[in-house]
Specification:
Layout (H helix, E strand, L loop, with lengths): L6 E10 L6 E12 L1 H8 L3 H11 L4 H8 L3 H15 L4 H13 L3
Helix pairs in contact: 2-4, 2-5, 3-4
């Protein structure tokens, strides 16, 4: 995922590799998401948690995230549990809405 120091701009276009079953998410400018630095300041997220949170916000699945980041599915789930605790959300859709609402704010 390509994240600039100020914010991450994303729109999603998916491609599935039928041989491996992995889903790649191609990101292009459209919707700004909070930067990893902002997520760290607001929620004390680690760099890995920030990366996973922004991937979830654009609709990438836990399986796809684990495959694309080279981590196990259980590790991805563990990171998601920490992200949910830190942001006080309970669903992927709530996390996406939170991140999108943060990007709309003028800081």
């Amino acid at each position: 995922m390509n994240i600039s120091s100020n914010s991450s701009s994303v729109s999603e276009a998916r491609a599935v590799d039928t041989a491996s079953g992995a889903t790649a998410v191609s990101l292009s400018p459209a919707v700004a998401l909070p930067s990893p630095e902002m997520l760290h300041l607001l929620f004390k997220m680690t760099a890995r948690e920030s990366s996973i949170a922004t991937r979830v916000a654009v609709g990438e699945s836990h399986r796809s995230i684990s495959t694309n980041l080279g981590i196990t599915y259980e590790t991805a789930r563990s990171h998601m549990k920490h992200i949910y605790d830190k942001t006080d959300v309970h669903r992927q859709s709530e996390l996406a809405a939170l991140l999108l609402s943060l990007s709309a704010r003028k800081w």
